[in-house]
Amino acid sequence: MVWTALLIAAAVRMTIPILLTALGATFSERSGVVNIGLEGMMIAGTFWGAFGALKGGPLFGFFLAMVAGMVLALVHAVVSIRFKVDQVVSGTAINILAAGLARFFSIMIFHMATTSPKVNAFAKISIPLLKDIPGLGPMFTDLSPVIIVAFILVPVSAYVLNRTVFGLRLRSVGENPLAADTLGINVYLMRYAGVLISGAFAGLAGAFLAVEHTGSYIEGQTGGRGFIALAAMIFGNWTPGGALAASLLFGLAQAVTLRVQIPGIPYQFIQMLPYLLTIAVLAGFVRKAVGPAADGIPYEREGE
């Protein structure tokens, strides 16, 4: 039971960066913009999160990571919304740009190409009563506050998307931007908002990896989680609740790769599990998934 509790606790930690990024992707895609650049925005979050935590503490690090993610998101938004460049191409360029900038700034600031000095994380918290349950205590002990915030953001995101005027307008421009435009909704503004929110969430996810998970910036530590988050968002049918369930599945797969060893099988094959699961989910589910009708389609107002 203790081993199972430790596995679940590890799965939850692995879930958080995927979940945060998947929530951000939900906002972007519900507005009609595909954001392949989430991986790059996470990379920016890892570097600037570590830098901010080193200079001003973990709270400043998370704030700086959000800003960094939003800056790259703004670049993606301007290129894909204003200039109508292919959104997949733009997102891919963001990923390449972010990786190069992270190494450049790491050399310039930390004088190391691939890592940063150790940084301080938030003080860990334990949930009263639950932490004393025999065998299950590890699941509720020494938790990062960011884990609790991430799970709270799921119902908050669902409420914003489904119960607010902003959410209704965001979803409308992702389904039928022409109809939304005729009703006086600024399609471009709503799409900018969706992409910027996705950048902020991805930046937070990157900061969690650097500040809370490893305690430093390490080149490549995102490990493709931005792409896994996209798969989780699709598997979750473009909803926050579905993204949570899918993220937990992928987080569990990553936790298993760290804690399970099978004699005679190289550990590299076990570490492939999350990525194989991603491919399997996309191959088996994408055909059945129905996203926003205008997702990935640039909008151009008549007469422009």
What this model shows, in words?
The protein has about 300 residues and is mainly alpha-helical. The chain has one domain (about 20-120, about 145-285): ABC transporter involved in vitamin B12 uptake, BtuC. It has twelve helices and no strands. The protein has helices spanning about 1-30, 40-55, 60-80, 85-110, 145-165, 165-175, 175-180, 185-215, 225-235, 240-260, 265-270, 275-285. It is globular, with a radius of gyration of 19 Å.
List the helices and strands and how they pair.
Elements: H1 2-30, H2 38-56, H3 58-82, H4 87-110, H5 145-163, H6 165-175, H7 177-182, H8 187-214, H9 225-235, H10 240-259, H11 267-271, H12 273-285
Helix pairs in contact: 1-5, 1-8, 1-9, 1-10, 2-3, 2-4, 2-8, 2-9, 3-4, 3-8, 5-6, 6-8, 9-10, 9-12, 10-12
CATH topology name, in short, is ABC transporter involved in vitamin B12 uptake, BtuC
Oligomer: single chain
Count of alpha and pi helical runs:
12
Count of beta strands: 0
Low-confidence parts: none
Strand content: under 5%
Please state the second-level CATH architecture: Orthogonal Bundle
CATH class, anyone? Mainly Alpha
SSE-based structural type: mainly alpha
Q: Identify the overall geometry.
A: globular
The number of distinct structural domains comes to: 1
Q: Any key phrases for this structure?
A:
single chain; 304 residues; mainly alpha; ABC transporter involved in vitamin B12 uptake, BtuC
